[in-house]
Amino acid sequence: MIRHVVLFTWTEDATDEQKAAVAPELRKLPAAIPQIRSYTVGPDAGISPGGHDFAVVADFDSVADFETYRDHPVHQAVIAERIKPIMATRAAAQLSL
Amino acid sequence: MIRHVVLFTWTEDATDEQKAAVAPELRKLPAAIPQIRSYTVGPDAGISPGGHDFAVVADFDSVADFETYRDHPVHQAVIAERIKPIMATRAAAQLSL
Questions:
Q1: Which positions carry the signal peptide feature in this UniProt record (chains A, B) (predicted)?
Q2: Domain-by-domain residue ranges, chain A?
Q3: DSSP B24
Q4: 3-state DSSP percent of chain B in helix, strand and coil, to 5
Q5: CB-CB neighbors (< 8 A) of A91 in chain B
Q6: What is the pLDDT of residues B1-32, one digit of tens each?
Protein backbone atom coordinates (compact mmCIF):
# COMPACT_ATOMS: atom_id res chain seq x y z
CA MET A 1 0.00 0.00 0.00
CA ILE A 2 1.09 3.57 -0.67
CA ARG A 3 0.09 6.14 1.95
CA HIS A 4 0.36 9.70 0.61
CA VAL A 5 0.70 12.40 3.30
CA VAL A 6 0.49 16.15 2.66
CA LEU A 7 0.50 19.15 5.00
CA PHE A 8 -0.27 22.71 3.93
CA THR A 9 -0.05 26.14 5.46
CA TRP A 10 -2.23 28.90 4.04
CA THR A 11 -1.24 32.47 3.27
CA GLU A 12 -2.13 35.27 5.67
CA ASP A 13 -4.34 36.73 2.95
CA ALA A 14 -6.46 33.56 2.63
CA THR A 15 -10.08 34.22 3.57
CA ASP A 16 -12.13 31.96 5.84
CA GLU A 17 -14.32 31.20 2.81
CA GLN A 18 -11.33 30.11 0.72
CA LYS A 19 -9.96 27.96 3.53
CA ALA A 20 -13.34 26.35 4.18
CA ALA A 21 -13.76 25.44 0.50
CA VAL A 22 -10.73 23.15 0.29
CA ALA A 23 -11.95 20.11 2.23
CA PRO A 24 -15.36 19.81 0.50
CA GLU A 25 -13.72 20.05 -2.93
CA LEU A 26 -11.11 17.41 -2.10
CA ARG A 27 -13.77 15.11 -0.65
CA LYS A 28 -15.38 14.94 -4.10
CA LEU A 29 -12.28 13.25 -5.51
CA PRO A 30 -12.91 9.64 -4.38
CA ALA A 31 -16.11 9.63 -6.46
CA ALA A 32 -14.12 10.78 -9.52
CA ILE A 33 -10.92 8.77 -8.99
CA PRO A 34 -11.68 5.13 -8.11
CA GLN A 35 -7.98 4.42 -7.49
CA ILE A 36 -8.33 6.21 -4.11
CA ARG A 37 -8.65 3.46 -1.47
CA SER A 38 -9.02 5.72 1.59
CA TYR A 39 -9.07 9.51 1.86
CA THR A 40 -8.98 11.68 4.96
CA VAL A 41 -8.62 15.45 4.63
CA GLY A 42 -9.33 18.47 6.77
CA PRO A 43 -8.15 21.49 8.70
CA ASP A 44 -5.90 21.18 11.71
CA ALA A 45 -7.98 20.56 14.83
CA GLY A 46 -6.00 23.12 16.84
CA ILE A 47 -4.97 20.70 19.59
CA SER A 48 -1.24 21.40 19.55
CA PRO A 49 0.32 24.82 18.92
CA GLY A 50 2.42 25.44 15.83
CA GLY A 51 0.56 23.03 13.62
CA HIS A 52 0.19 23.24 9.87
CA ASP A 53 -3.22 24.38 8.61
CA PHE A 54 -4.48 21.40 6.61
CA ALA A 55 -3.71 17.70 6.17
CA VAL A 56 -4.36 15.04 3.54
CA VAL A 57 -3.81 11.29 4.05
CA ALA A 58 -4.64 9.20 0.98
CA ASP A 59 -4.13 5.45 0.56
CA PHE A 60 -3.60 3.55 -2.70
CA ASP A 61 -3.04 -0.08 -3.59
CA SER A 62 -0.01 0.70 -5.78
CA VAL A 63 2.40 3.38 -6.97
CA ALA A 64 0.55 3.41 -10.30
CA ASP A 65 -2.76 4.17 -8.55
CA PHE A 66 -1.11 6.98 -6.56
CA GLU A 67 0.30 8.46 -9.77
CA THR A 68 -3.12 8.27 -11.43
CA TYR A 69 -4.53 10.32 -8.53
CA ARG A 70 -1.59 12.73 -8.44
CA ASP A 71 -1.87 13.55 -12.14
CA HIS A 72 -5.68 13.27 -12.52
CA PRO A 73 -7.22 16.36 -14.16
CA VAL A 74 -10.01 16.60 -11.57
CA HIS A 75 -7.41 16.59 -8.79
CA GLN A 76 -5.21 19.06 -10.65
CA ALA A 77 -8.22 21.36 -11.06
CA VAL A 78 -8.81 21.45 -7.27
CA ILE A 79 -5.10 22.18 -6.74
CA ALA A 80 -5.14 24.99 -9.31
CA GLU A 81 -8.45 26.57 -8.30
CA ARG A 82 -8.71 25.98 -4.54
CA ILE A 83 -5.27 25.19 -3.09
CA LYS A 84 -2.61 27.09 -5.04
CA PRO A 85 -4.33 30.51 -4.61
CA ILE A 86 -4.03 30.27 -0.80
CA MET A 87 -1.02 27.97 -0.37
CA ALA A 88 1.95 29.29 1.62
CA THR A 89 3.86 26.00 2.12
CA ARG A 90 3.40 22.34 1.20
CA ALA A 91 5.11 19.31 2.74
CA ALA A 92 4.55 15.78 1.40
CA ALA A 93 5.86 12.23 1.58
CA GLN A 94 4.72 8.76 0.54
CA LEU A 95 4.99 5.72 2.80
CA SER A 96 5.31 2.28 1.25
CA LEU A 97 3.46 -0.01 3.69
CA MET B 1 -11.02 9.93 15.95
CA ILE B 2 -7.90 12.07 15.99
CA ARG B 3 -5.43 11.48 13.14
CA HIS B 4 -2.00 12.93 13.93
CA VAL B 5 0.19 13.62 10.88
CA VAL B 6 3.88 14.56 10.99
CA LEU B 7 6.48 15.09 8.27
CA PHE B 8 10.19 15.50 8.89
CA THR B 9 13.22 16.46 6.89
CA TRP B 10 16.64 15.36 8.12
CA THR B 11 19.81 17.40 8.28
CA GLU B 12 22.49 17.01 5.62
CA ASP B 13 24.81 15.69 8.32
CA ALA B 14 22.47 12.86 9.31
CA THR B 15 24.07 9.46 8.67
CA ASP B 16 22.29 6.56 6.97
CA GLU B 17 22.54 4.70 10.28
CA GLN B 18 20.84 7.53 12.18
CA LYS B 19 18.08 7.83 9.58
CA ALA B 20 17.51 4.08 9.51
CA ALA B 21 17.14 3.95 13.31
CA VAL B 22 14.09 6.22 13.52
CA ALA B 23 11.36 3.93 12.17
CA PRO B 24 12.27 0.84 14.27
CA GLU B 25 12.37 2.95 17.45
CA LEU B 26 9.00 4.59 16.72
CA ARG B 27 7.45 1.20 15.90
CA LYS B 28 8.13 0.10 19.49
CA LEU B 29 5.75 2.78 20.79
CA PRO B 30 2.40 1.01 20.25
CA ALA B 31 3.56 -1.74 22.64
CA ALA B 32 4.38 0.90 25.28
CA ILE B 33 1.46 3.31 24.70
CA PRO B 34 -1.86 1.45 24.43
CA GLN B 35 -3.71 4.67 23.54
CA ILE B 36 -2.25 4.35 19.99
CA ARG B 37 -5.03 2.91 17.81
CA SER B 38 -3.10 2.76 14.52
CA TYR B 39 0.48 3.74 13.73
CA THR B 40 2.21 3.99 10.36
CA VAL B 41 5.71 5.44 10.12
CA GLY B 42 8.57 5.32 7.67
CA PRO B 43 10.87 7.01 5.21
CA ASP B 44 9.61 8.64 2.05
CA ALA B 45 9.30 6.04 -0.71
CA GLY B 46 10.94 8.34 -3.26
CA ILE B 47 8.05 8.26 -5.74
CA SER B 48 7.61 12.02 -6.18
CA PRO B 49 10.46 14.53 -6.23
CA GLY B 50 10.76 17.13 -3.47
CA GLY B 51 9.25 15.01 -0.76
CA HIS B 52 9.96 15.25 2.93
CA ASP B 53 12.17 12.51 4.37
CA PHE B 54 9.92 10.77 6.90
CA ALA B 55 6.22 10.52 7.76
CA VAL B 56 4.16 9.53 10.81
CA VAL B 57 0.40 8.91 10.76
CA ALA B 58 -1.02 7.98 14.18
CA ASP B 59 -4.69 7.46 15.06
CA PHE B 60 -6.31 7.90 18.48
CA ASP B 61 -9.84 7.54 19.82
CA SER B 62 -9.76 10.93 21.53
CA VAL B 63 -7.82 14.15 22.08
CA ALA B 64 -6.89 12.87 25.55
CA ASP B 65 -5.38 9.69 24.06
CA PHE B 66 -3.40 11.76 21.54
CA GLU B 67 -2.08 13.97 24.33
CA THR B 68 -1.08 10.91 26.35
CA TYR B 69 0.98 9.74 23.36
CA ARG B 70 2.41 13.19 22.63
CA ASP B 71 3.65 13.67 26.18
CA HIS B 72 4.54 10.04 27.00
CA PRO B 73 8.11 9.68 28.34
CA VAL B 74 8.88 6.72 26.05
CA HIS B 75 7.82 8.81 23.03
CA GLN B 76 9.71 11.84 24.30
CA ALA B 77 12.83 9.68 24.68
CA VAL B 78 12.69 8.63 21.00
CA ILE B 79 12.23 12.27 20.00
CA ALA B 80 15.19 13.38 22.13
CA GLU B 81 17.57 10.54 21.26
CA ARG B 82 16.69 9.60 17.66
CA ILE B 83 14.77 12.43 15.98
CA LYS B 84 15.99 15.76 17.36
CA PRO B 85 19.69 15.04 16.64
CA ILE B 86 18.99 14.72 12.88
CA MET B 87 15.87 16.88 12.48
CA ALA B 88 16.03 19.79 10.03
CA THR B 89 12.29 20.60 9.79
CA ARG B 90 9.04 19.28 11.27
CA ALA B 91 5.49 19.83 9.98
CA ALA B 92 2.46 18.49 11.85
CA ALA B 93 -1.32 18.70 12.06
CA GLN B 94 -4.17 16.80 13.69
CA LEU B 95 -7.37 15.87 11.87
CA SER B 96 -10.57 15.44 13.83
CA LEU B 97 -12.46 12.69 11.94
A1: none
A2: 2-96
A3: H
A4: 40, 35, 30
A5: 7, 52, 89, 91
A6: 999 999 999 999 999 999 999 999 999 999 99
